[in-house]
Design a protein that fits this description.
- This protein is of the alpha/beta class.
- The protein is built from 20 helices and 20 strands.
- The strands form 5 sheets. The chain has a 6-stranded mixed beta sheet, sandwiched between helices.
- Strand 17 (465-469), helix 15 (477-489) and strand 18 (493-497) form a beta-alpha-beta unit.
């Protein structure tokens, strides 16, 4: 079976810079190819060439006859006033009119195709304006728009940047189950491991400009290390040969007359090969990320109690407590629109919490004797005196697109980093920018370059707490590794919002998961959250054996009359019901004790005890929810 697409000897230049040259590979049916590489290596440009949106300077791309290719750009754009349905339908209509959708015969079939794909992809109601969609919803809609073309080859440029973890899992399932091949640009290591059947790295470190490995990311790293080790040994062997060539060439005049011209030519050829090998083997540079911390010794940097927020009648979270201490990394998770950014704005003081409800105040009065002295009031955030919070914003709106790179770094010709003055050019080079780029406007920079600019600005500000909202977007794998190491060594507190599951697994000391429906739950680490997230969802309401929602004792209303068709409680179930209420009280008392322990300085200073208490609290909260669900089920049949 011939390949869907074959690329041979592709090269592309941008101004005076060569992005890549000599690149070639093929894509087979249902293959899932992941394209990785350093920022600026030309990955997005290469995918546009494959999509037919641009032409190579040299080389050629051949495709199977009538190949249908769909492309999803890094930035999602929709027509002004478009709705979810019209965005898909108008795109199909444009392709149909240009003859690219011969499988559809009339407008009615186009409408059916649009409705069918929206039925499979959970975006939003069809009449929802695109302008009101979240970043994750916009990305899902862009992918749905591409899937509606029934492509043989789907090209995706950084699709995971704006998807939450559930959205990324949906995309993984879609690519694995789809009857099409795909090429995906991504730096999500978990995505690479679980989805890719082949990984191709675009980099000047390789003789042909690319390095291809069948398998996932772990296999790619192993094979890459073997290749680079072999290339380094080849450089060493060639260096020894060139050393001998130079010694031979430097002999006296009499010896030179007898030298063979072919041997001289071979010597110079080996020198050229050695220079090329040394250039390829030069260590890959990464941004020098190292956040500056203050010398604060305070154990409780920030304590928030009973935070609540309701937006347009929808409760994002209620009665939420947050504690940030030195050395802690709080991973903040939840679907798009669940309130992560809202919570961040509360922690930074930009907005305030909703006032506590009467029910919350009643509960507070019951546990007040168990609370440590100085516990903040409900609905408040207590920050240490002169607390310094540094925020990495996902939107990066504080960067003026019209400003030059030099102006974004500093209004002067130098910056002060950790008490030392550095010239602006030196500072730029630390983040992989050349001197000639200093006069370049920010609007001309790539997403990865803008991310490095933002990080460079934040590094100039000493911080007690770092709040990072999707810092991994657009960063290449080398920069991601350096960022992780910097956060791991940062002595202050970190609040980390990211869809990068590998980073959460490595760094997070606690996970706070928001569900966007008023619920919030702590987990000891990412693995505990992942295990809970894989639990099968409850059966639909009303189905046999369906568990009832866990009631809140402060808001439980009268139980409706029992359904006569339901079986009455057995003697054993009656005894179980009588024992549940004391057990609920015992678990609630234990939860209050563990929460008090978590707030104590002794626990905060002992990371092992902090992890144990966090795990115990998560288990107790799960136990309490199970008890309430069982209590409600038995009460309904009483």
């Amino acid at each position: 079976m011939p390949a869907l697409l074959s690329a041979r000897n592709l090269s592309k230049h941008f101004d005076a810079r060569t992005l890549f040259s000599g690149v070639g590979f093929s894509i087979d049916e249902r293959e899932r190819l992941a394209l990785i590489g350093p920022n600026g290596s030309g990955k997005s440009t290469l995918v546009k060439l494959l999509a037919g949106l641009d032409s190579p300077d040299t080389g050629e791309i051949s495709t199977r006859r009538l190949l249908r290719v769909a492309y999803v750009a890094q930035t999602d754009t929709f027509d002004p006033g478009a709705t979810v349905r019209s965005a898909v339908l108008s795109n199909l209509e444009a392709s149909w009119q240009s003859g690219k959708l011969p499988q559809h015969h009339d407008h009615h079939e186009l409408e059916l195709a649009a409705d069918m794909v929206l039925g499979r992809v959970d975006v939003a109601p069809p009449d929802t304006p695109c302008a009101s969609l979240s970043g994750g919803q916009r990305k899902r809609l862009s992918i749905a728009r591409a899937l509606a073309h029934e492509p043989d080859l789907l090209l995706l440029d950084e699709p995971t940047n704006h998807l939450d973890v559930e959205g990324i899992r949906w995309l993984e399932d879609t690519l694995r189950a789809g009857p099409f091949a795909s090429v995906v640009i991504t730096h999500d290591r978990a995505f690479l491991e679980q989805t890719a059947t082949r990984i191709v790295e675009l980099s000047r470190a390789y003789p042909d400009g690319t390095f291809s490995v069948e398998g996932g990311y772990a296999e790619f790293l192993r094979r890459k290390a073997e290749f680079l080790d072999g290339q380094a040994r080849q450089e060493q062997a060639l260096s020894n040969e060139v050393r001998e060539d130079l010694r031979w060439l430097s002999r006296g005049a009499k010896a030179r007359r007898t030298k063979s011209k072919s041997r001289i030519d071979a010597s110079y050829q080996r020198m050229d090969e050695l220079a090329e090998l040394r250039a390829r083997n030069a260590p890959q540079r990464a941004a020098q990320i190292d956040f500056t911390a203050t010398d604060r010794q305070t154990q409780k940097l920030l304590v928030a109690r009973g935070l609540s927020r309701t937006v347009q009648g929808r409760t994002l979270f209620r009665g939420l407590d947050v504690l940030l201490s030195p050395g802690s990394v709080l991973g903040l998770m939840g679907p798009n629109g669940s309130g992560k950014t809202t919570l961040i704005r509360m922690l930074t003081g930009e907005i305030e919490s909703d006032p506590p409800t009467p029910e919350m105040l009643e509960e507070e009065a019951q546990v007040a004797p168990l609370l440590p002295h100085g516990t903040p009031a409900l609905g408040t955030v207590r920050r240490a005196q002169n607390l310094r919070i540094v925020l990495f914003s996902q939107s990066r709106t504080e960067l003026d697109p019209g400003a030059t790179l030099s102006e974004a770094f500093s209004p002067a010709d130098s910056v002060v980093y950790r008490g030392r003055s550095l010239h602006i050019a030196t500072w730029a080079e630390m983040f992989l920018f050349s001197r000639h780029q200093l006069k370049q406007p920010l609007r001309s920079l790539s997403g990865g370059e803008l991310a490095r600019v933002h990080i460079a600005r934040l590094m100039l500000e000493p911080a007690d707490i770092l709040i990072l909202d999707e810092p991994t977007n657009d960063l290449d794998l080398a920069s991601l590794s350096v960022l992780e190491e910097s956060l791991e060594e940062f002595p202050g507190a970190v609040v980390l919002v990211t869809h990068d599951r590998a980073m959460l697994d490595r760094l997070a000391t606690r996970i706070l998961a928001l569900d966007g429906e008023g619920g919030a739950r702590y987990f000891a680490d990412y693995q505990q959250w992942a295990k809970a997230a894989k639990a099968p969802p409850p059966s639909p309401a009303g189905s046999p054996g369906a568990p009832k929602p866990a009631p809140n004792p402060a808001t439980t209303t009268a139980v409706p009359p029992p359904d006569p068709s339901k079986k009455k409680l057995s003697y054993k179930e009656q005894r179980e019901l009588e024992a549940i209420q004391p057990e609920i009280e015992r678990v609630e008392s234990r939860i209050a004790q563990v929460e008090a322990s978590l707030a104590s300085p002794e626990t905060l200073a002992n990371h092992r005890r902090l992890a144990e208490d966090s795990s115990a609290l998560a288990d107790l909260q799960q136990r309490l929810a199970t008890l309430y669900a069982r209590w409600q089920e038995l009460e309904d049949r009483r």
